[in-house]
Prior knowledge:
Shape: rod-shaped
Distance between the termini: 85 Å
Low-confidence stretches: none
Structural class: alpha+beta
Radius of gyration: 32 Å
Helix content: 40-55%
Strand content: 5-15%
Strand order of the largest sheet: 1-2
Mean pLDDT: 80
Number of helices: 4
Amino acid sequence: xxxxxxxxxxxxxxxxxxxxxxxxxxxxxxxxxxxxxxxxxxxxxxxxxxxxxxxxxxxxxxxxxxxxxxxxxxxxxxxxxxxxxxxxxxxxxxxxxxxxxxxxxxxxxxxxxxxxxxxxxxxxxxx
Length: 127
């Protein structure tokens, strides 16, 4: 579902706004968290994933949270720019590709090819 939304140019632009806002507002607090617990200076955070444990001090976790926040802001901004660029390309730049005159940029249709003149048979005209 999310992949399908992001493969759509409108979904990429709107998803980018959502990720950007998440990075700015949801991750913008002064609290340092380990999971759902708020950490204080001197605390350690232990995360276990797939059998591997990672231990971070308060300062390390604060740095990790800030890096994640700036990453979310950057990814959201990139998604928005790419999605908006694809929308502009689709609606502005590709709008005239169906008509060769518009694609050429002159606004007039191309001239018709010359038609062959009919040949006259018989006696030459009298003068």
